[in-house]
Design goal:
CATH architecture: 3-Layer(aba) Sandwich
Structural class: alpha/beta
Bound molecules: adenosine-5'-triphosphate
Pfam families: ABC_tran (PF00005)
Helix content: 25-40%
GO molecular function, one term: ATP hydrolysis activity
Domain ABC transporter: 9-213
Number of helices: 7
Oligomer: single chain
CATH topology: Rossmann fold
Protein name: ABC transporter domain-containing protein
Shape: globular
Family: Belongs to the ABC transporter superfamily.
Mean pLDDT: 91
Largest sheet: 5 strands, parallel
């Protein structure tokens, strides 16, 4: 069994600007090991922007992000998996090659990449499609491939932007199960979704309300 995660993440007084417009400011939250934050709000409220900030893909316009339980020099990007709207798969590579790349690249020094690859192929039942180029997958299968990356390397922070989009009912259940197991292992998750999930979120953040405040 893997060592339980022990990462905490807090956002302190953070702000976000896009195209010269302030989407939110003075935002605070804290997530401890085993906890999940649900980010909600209407279209355009800034959910994707916030997740991209947490993933280190978009600069903060103010405030700071603080982690505890990890080496202070390790950027959040290296502690997290970010699954966004783009599925980030190499279309000419097969399903297996994509997952093998992630297992080799992301899980270096964290156990046997072959074990991670097997876990990733099994997580959303992509084993049978292993030889298919990722570009030929259906929309839901592409989303499953992106989510399978969560299993290609153990990382304490999952940043999931509308993770259930295009998934069938059984796969949404698998996603809920995966999140439950991740939280049980002490992982943390920040999730934006318009669709109800079974996952028990310990914290919620409504960016629509933040904006109105
Ligand atoms: N590169 C950009 N330049 C300027 N404005 C941008 C840029 N990217 C996003 N925006 C704007 O920032 C705002 C927030 O976008 P974001 O994608 O974060 O919203 P969201 O809450 O995730 O929306 P949705 O629910 O529709 O996915 C939108 O008004 C969008 O037009």
């Amino acid at each position: 069994m893997q060592t339980p995660f022990k990462l905490s993440l807090s956002a302190q007084d953070i702000a976000c600007e896009r195209g010269g417009r302030t989407l939110f400011r003075n935002l605070d939250f804290a997530v401890e090991p085993g906890q999940a934050l649900l980010v909600s709000g209407p279209n355009g409220a800034g959910k994707t922007s916030l997740l991209r900030q947490l993933a280190g893909l978009l600069p903060l316009a103010g405030g700071r992000l603080v982690t505890d339980g990890a080496d202070a020099d390790t950027p959040i990007a290296e502690l997290s998996h970010y699954v966004g709207h783009l599925n980030a798969a190499k279309t000419a590579f097969t399903v297996r090659e994509n997952l093998a790349f992630w297992a080799d690249f992301l899980a270096e020094g964290q156990g046997d990449p072959a074990d991670h690859l097997a876990g990733a192929l099994a997580a959303f039942g992509l084993g049978e499609l292993g030889r298919l180029p990722a570009g030929l997958l259906s929309a839901g299968q592409k989303r499953k491939l992106a989510l399978s990356r969560l299993f290609a390397a153990p990382r304490p922070l999952w940043l999931l932007d509308e993770p259930s989009v295009s998934l069938d009912v059984a796969s949404v259940k698998k996603l809920d199960g995966a999140m439950r197991d991740h939280l049980k292992a002490g992982g943390i998750a920040v999730v934006s979704t318009h669709v109800p999930l079974e996952t028990k979120f310990t914290h919620t953040l409504d960016l629509g309300l933040e904006r109105a405040a």
